Each structure stands twice: as C-alpha cells, then as structure tokens.
Amino acid sequence: VEGRWTEIRSAFLEAMYTGWRRQLYPRLSRTVGRVRPPTPADPDDFLHSVDAVLEYDATDRLARIEPRTLVIGGDDDPFFPERILRETHDELPDAQLAIFRGARHGAFLERKEAFDDWVRQFLAGEPARARS
C-alpha cells in the first residue's frame, strides 16, 4: 500500500461516481493529484479502517434501533449495493428507503438536489414521496 495512495484514491473515485465524474475525477487524481498525493498520517490507520469496515456486521442489532432511520444510496453502489440497502431497511423497525437509480456511492453529490430533498423531508418528519 505504501507509495500507492494516488492509485488507491483514483480507484476509489472511479468506484464512487458515474458519468463524467467517473471519467474525470480518477484522471485528475492520477495527474494533478501527483503534485500533492494523498498521504495518511499513519498508513496502518487506513488499513485498519478498511479491515474494520469489511469485517463489521451489525445486522443482528438493526431491529433494536429505535429512532427513525433513513437508508439512502445508489442502486449501483459497489460498497453498499441495493441488496444491502433493502435488507437494512427491512430489518429496521422505523425506516424510510431512498434508492437513486443509476447512482453509485457518490449519490450525495451526483443527485445533490434530490438527495438533500430526501434528507430535509426525513428530518422534518414528512412522509416519503417516490423520487430519485
């Protein structure tokens, strides 16, 4: 991993976005990003964080979550695929589900207006309306 941070960031950006962002952001990372490459303070922190995310499973605790919950994401997210979003939603006692068609992990940016609208309405306690 050491010395491969630009490559890792570029791969992450490619996995995060669709459309022009998926084409442009990794290229920028590989070119302009080399001027100031990402370097974590402690590379082991990054590795431990990735391992923790991959190993963590709280599925057995979802039914005990009391506050209303918004499960939101893209249907093409490689990190939290639609199947996981739906399974999470189904296990939560009081949840709303918002899935953005054709979006990946960067749905919060690529579908900013609709994403923000979902969050605002959820926080205001308004009922969900079909949109994406």
Description:
With 132 residues, the chain is mainly alpha-helical. It has 6 helices and 2 strands; from the N terminus they run αααβαβαα. A two-stranded parallel sheet has the order 1-2. Helix 1 runs antiparallel to helix 2 (19-30). The protein is globular. 16% of the residues are buried. The model has no long low-confidence stretch (mean pLDDT 90).
Strand segment tally:
2
Class from secondary-structure proportions: mainly alpha
Low-confidence stretches: none
Helix content: 40-55%
SSE inventory with pairings:
Layout: H1 5-16, H2 19-30, H3 43-55, E1 69-74, H4 82-91, E2 95-100, H5 107-110, H6 112-123
Parallel strand pairs: 1-2
Helix pairs in contact: 1-2
Short description:
Helix 1 runs antiparallel to helix 2 (19-30).
Defining key terms:
single chain; 132 residues; mainly alpha; two-stranded parallel sheet
